[in-house]
Amino acid sequence: MLRRRKGSEPEKSSKPEKPRVDGEEDGDDDSEKKRREKERFYQKRREKELRRWNCVDSCCWFIGCICSIWWFLLFLFNAMPASFPQYVTEAITGPLPDPPGVKLLKEGLTAKHPVVFVPGIVTGGLELWEGHQCAEGLFRKRLWGGTFGEVYKRPLCWVEHLSLDNETGLDPSGIRIRPVSGLVAADYFAPGYFVWAVLIANLARIGYEEKNMHMAAYDWRISFQNTEVRDQTLSRIKSNIELMVATSGGRKVVVIPHSMGVLYFLHFMKWVESPVPMGGGGGSDWCAKHIKAIMNIGGPFLGVPKAVTGLFSAEAKDIAVARAIAPGVLEMDVFGFQTLQHVMRMTRTWDSTMSMIPKGGDTIWGGFDWSPEEGYECVAKKMKNSDNQTAGQNGKVSLDKTKRLHYGRIISFGKDVADAESSKIERMDFRGAVKGNNLANTTCRDVWTEYHDMGIEGIKAVADYKVYTAGSLLDLLQFVAPKMMKRGSAHFSYGIADNLDDKKYEHYRYWSNPLETK
């Protein structure tokens, strides 16, 4: 028989129960209410803080909106048909004219003669082949041309590598900068800034390609003859032209030089027909056998005045425009150095800039009181009236007779001196002046090449001469920068030949001057 077992009684607590006091239960309820109210208060406070809109939230929201709009527009751009931008443009401006290459193709023209491009100064790309430790990771990267990104990343290193030796005019020790090869060497100077790209594209439309187009790239920083000494560039151009003529069925090449490339190719034509070792040994009829035509674009055969201002003070026209657009930018202490002064130090080591110093002296460019432009009437696009000009009925603008412009005065220290009559200008010759020992600007001693050696007395002597013509410019540069002019005089000449049959004109320093060569 099973018997239900009686359950065990709960053990009594050994601790005596606390006696209850009347009203204690009500006190516990009040404290519980206060605790709950306090928790609700802090919870609402936290919720308000979470809902509060601060500056960080605004920035994040703004960045998010910009990114969303950007990705949306990018999606639309990639999704739209390729012809849509042209359709919109034609709807606004009307039908676009055909490019020149398409017009020539419709007329039945096709590729015939090989084409050789000769770029000018600063338009050809330069890349690094050997450099110092600061240029680590830049092997075969463009230091000149393209995005110019290294100017901002490592500016002092960039200036150091693009500068040449101030004595030899060649690469400094441990640095090798070489020109980029191929058509990409000078098709674009920078993104969106085309040089030869449009011409190459139009020639491609009528059948040209890389086998019958050649970019004669060269290091535009060094003197013309030194491109052959260091890189054998002139020999390469000669070989490439001979190869293009041979592979095109004997058709001669058409050469298109631009800017300083005009002077460079003029030097090449004299070099290729001159006997070795100074020349290429091609014979006196090499150009006639291999060159069909030459189409020069903006060739400075007689030099350009802004080359002098660039060498003298870096105050060329382009710099003046930059100063007018953004005054003070070039003098700002960017990246810990004076931008313009370092650029001046770099460009004054480039011997090629001296090839564009005005040639012919006062005979070509005019003197103190006259110039070839004297009496010339400019045709104005719009009729304007001013204090110095009067507009005629035929649209021509004649200069006021009371105020003459002296174009022969290439450099003048002061506008009043530039406009004054020669009899009213007191000048002191600077040629015999003694350069002082005190530095004109001690902060630039490690920046300027040899200009800091002039001193206060030398600068005062240059300024007291007041007006410089083409005939005195060479003396000015010789006084200011003798080392630079010593290098330049070894490779370039700026006079007019007395007798072209003289044997001295067979030297290469005369080959790029059309006034001293046959």
UniProtKB/TrEMBL annotation:
Reactions catalysed: a glycerophospholipid + a 1,2-diacyl-sn-glycerol = a monoacylglycerophospholipid + a triacyl-sn-glycerol
Spans traversing the lipid bilayer: 55-77
Superkingdom to which the source organism belongs: Eukaryota
GO CC entries: membrane
Topological relation to the membrane, as annotated: Single-pass membrane protein
Biased composition (Basic and acidic residues): 7-22
Pfam families referenced in this protein's UniProt entry, alphabetically: LCAT (PF02450)
GO biological process, one term: triglyceride biosynthetic process
Top-level EC class as recorded in UniProt: transferase
Cellular location(s): Membrane
Family: Belongs to the AB hydrolase superfamily. Lipase family.
Name of the protein: phospholipid:diacylglycerol acyltransferase
